[in-house]
Write a structure and sequence with these properties.
- The longest helix has 24 residues, at 70-93.
- The chain has a 6-stranded parallel sheet with strand order 3-4-2-1-5-6, sandwiched between helices.
- The radius of gyration is 20 Å and the shape is globular.
- The protein contains 8 helices and 6 strands.
- The model is unreliable at 249-253 (pLDDT under 50).
- Helix 4 links the parallel strand 3 and strand 4 (129-136).
- The chain has a single domain (11-223), classed as Undecaprenyl pyrophosphate synthetase, CATH 3.40.1180.
- By secondary structure, it is an alpha/beta fold.
């Protein structure tokens, strides 16, 4: 199902924030918020798939999160493991491609095996590209891309296109919409390269209360925004008209 959106949104990234504060407001331990929030993930993945979104990238665990209390970190590990086991069949059935981006070195062996297995099983799937950013940092990704390019191309000048080719998952492309739940208005080192021209949407709703309906409403709202990518509306119209004229001329020649 595709919504009738004037400016189709292909790649959505989400910073799933507010779990700990949601729990604290209810006099519960912070980990309780992560447990409740984990149940929202499947709903949003299903809605993104139903709406015809091409790629959904979820910020599950940042490279800075390693400094959190070990009890909380272990809970996050366990929730990722449970999600992979519970949602595996649905991911396979719905032709979803699953990947993890980031450093998962410190994950338990059993969880890493589940990740590798699901990535292998879905590598040729052509539906929604579902990516979990885990142990991820945007600056680290760009640094890694630059170092990889330099190693493979000594002495060659680098370009933006070349950097994009060396990102962790190059075929995800640019982000069209970045959503952050929880009320904070920060990027938090997430997909710094890919969000260069993304639309930003900050909602006060904390992740455990986030719903498929709110997700759909945000997409509808943002799709009505005019995205000029640095150009004026007239300049965009002129470019579009020139491209159409060139295409028509090529058809006439053919």
């Amino acid at each position: 199902m595709n919504l009738d959106r004037p400016n189709p949104i292909k790649h959505v990234a989400v910073i799933m924030d507010g779990n700990g504060r949601w729990a604290t407001m209810r006099s519960h331990p912070r980990v309780w918020g992560h447990v409740r929030g984990s149940g929202v993930v499947a709903d949003i993945v299903e809605e993104a798939d139903n709406l015809g979104i091409s790629a959904l990238t979820l910020y599950a665990f940042s490279s800075e999160n390693w400094c959190r209390p070990q009890t909380e970190v272990r809970v996050l590990f366990n929730l990722l493991h449970k999600f992979l086991k519970k949602e595996r069949e649905r991911i396979l059935k719905n032709n979803i491609r699953f990947k993890i981006m980031g450093d998962i070195t410190n994950l338990p062996v059993q969880t890493k095996n589940l990740i590798f297995q699901l990535e292998e099983e879905t590598q040729f799937h052509t539906g929604l590209k579902l990516t979990f950013a885990f142990g991820y940092g945007g600056r680290a990704e760009i640094t890694h891309a630059l170092n990889a390019f330099i190693r493979n191309n000594p002495g060659k000048e680098i370009s933006e296109d070349e950097i994009a080719k060396y990102l962790m998952i190059p075929d995800l492309g640019d982000v069209d919409l970045l959503i952050r739940t929880g009320g904070d208005h920060r990027i938090s080192n997430f997909l710094l390269w890919q969000i260069a021209y993304a639309e930003l949407y900050f909602t006060e709703t904390k992740w455990p209360d986030f719903s498929a309906e709110e997700f759909r409403n945000i997409l509808n709202d943002v799709s009505r925004r005019e995205r000029r990518f640095g150009a004026t509306t007239k300049a965009q119209d002129l470019k579009s008209n020139v491209e159409k004229a060139r295409a028509n001329k090529s058809l006439l020649r053919g």
